[in-house]
Specification:
Elements lengths: L1 E6 L11 H4 L4 H15 L2 E6 L3 H11 L5 E5 L8 H10 L3 E5 L21 E4 L3 H14 L2
Parallel strand pairs: 1-2, 1-3, 3-4, 4-5
Helix pairs in contact: 2-5, 3-4
The protein binds 3-dehydroshikimate.
Length: about 140
């Protein structure tokens, strides 16, 4: 099974940005963590990060037919991007939404999730383990 793991804006700043919320581990640590979890589950994970909404849209479109599933942390675009939602609907690649934090317990503007409108399931509030949970869920159900 091939899973595309997409990370949105500012996740490249992990380890530096608001460590009281996002932790002290870096984006490189996250990529290594996902690689280890994927190998243990026997799935293939390709991990990408961008700060640009259009790039996220391009990658979601390109996933169609090329990947079995998307694990998506669209970061701030989760709460703003109709373009990301439309791309997810167009691509029709099964999607799991992930977040390191629990957005619903933060500021009110984080309570809306456009990604959730297309995602099969949301995994949040468990730091890096939110990604592990999403990978394990796709691995167990066979995407
Ligand atoms: C990451 C972000 O950058 C925020 O904009 C989201 C998400 C939450 C996270 O918890 O991984 O609101």
């Amino acid at each position: 099974m091939k899973i595309l793991v997409l990370n949105g804006p500012n996740l490249n700043m992990l380890g530096v940005r608001e460590p009281h919320l996002y932790g002290s581990r870096t984006y490189a640590d996250l990529v290594a963590f996902i690689g280890e979890k994927a190998a243990a589950l026997g799935v293939e994970a390709e991990v990408r990060q961008t700060n640009h909404e259009g790039t996220l849209v391009d990658w979601i479109q390109e996933s169609r037919g090329a990947f079995d599933a998307i694990v998506l942390n669209a970061a701030a675009y989760t709460h703003t991007s109709v373009a990301v939602l439309d791309a997810l609907k167009a691509a029709q690649t099964p999607v799991a939404e992930v977040h390191l934090t629990e957005p619903k317990e933060r500021e009110s503007f984080r309570r809306v999730s456009y990604v959730a409108m297309a995602a099969e399931k949301t995994f949040s509030g468990r730091g890096f383990d939110s990604y592990a949970d999403a990978l394990a869920w796709f691995a167990s159900k066979g995407a």
